[in-house]
């Protein structure tokens, strides 16, 4: 295990082995470790899809596969992108977008209106996502907060169902201090409340390794909830249990001003169908 990655895993609540690996790596290397750009634990509310090097599977240095041009390009953004130049993104071929709306039950994205409405205004199909913090409030309470602060849905053919961003905890223990069964219950509570409020099954954004570690690779959501897989590689790789196909794929991060890049596993008509319900 490389020193930087080992140190990060210890900061995020990984096992004692991670700490030992970090110390061992520091003793063996002759060059100083490069720290994470964010430094220490980030401020609550600042999380976003794919935050940090442990928030996705694969490597961010892997080039996109040549055949991806046949799929619909998308982007996900948060307050890190500030005001987004949607016209430029549209001109480059981006056809759908998700904007972070909320986190926990206390944070709302101050750039949400410009990002969410701006993508819609240039012609994109748009959706909102919620960054889950299962250690701060229950799943149903967070679903309510999400719906009440931009995460709702309308049958206009241009609004995608809300997405639950459930991944490694950037503020502490990887699984938010929950057992696998408790995590599954939390996710179920969120999904059930979201559907009862909107009539739609929420999209689940996650990485296979996190899902395996923190839910025990639970297979019960695959038949109802579309999967948005986070893997920075040339293929989506192994999917979490229960899903035989992914709907969306976050395949790379390109920095602060553009947001993360994604592809939709289908045609424009299928994207419209997902939005319509």
UniProtKB/TrEMBL annotation:
Q: What is its EC number?
A: 3.2.1.17
The leader peptide range reads: none
Q: Where does this chain mainly localize?
A: secreted
- Is Hydrolase given among the entry's keywords? yes
* Subcellular compartments: Secreted
Which GO molecular function entries does the Swiss-Prot or TrEMBL record give?
lysozyme activity
**Keyword annotations of the record:** Antimicrobial, Bacteriolytic enzyme, Disulfide bond, Glycosidase, Hydrolase, Secreted
Task: Report the record's Gene Ontology biological process terms.
Answer: carbohydrate catabolic process; cell wall macromolecule catabolic process; defense response to bacterium; killing of cells of another organism; peptidoglycan catabolic process
What Gene3D superfamilies does this protein's entry cite?
A: Glycosidases
| GO terms under cellular component | extracellular region
Q: Supply the SMART domains for this chain.
A: Glyco_25
Reactions that this protein is recorded to catalyse: Hydrolysis of (1->4)-beta-linkages between N-acetylmuramic acid and N-acetyl-D-glucosamine residues in a peptidoglycan and between N-acetyl-D-glucosamine residues in chitodextrins
Q: What class of enzyme is it?
A: hydrolase
- Its function? This enzyme has both lysozyme (acetylmuramidase) and diacetylmuramidase activities.
Family, per entry = Belongs to the glycosyl hydrolase 25 family.
Q: What PANTHER family would the database entry show?
A: LYSOZYME
Q: What is this protein called?
A: lysozyme
Q: Which organism is it from?
A: Streptomyces actinomycinicus
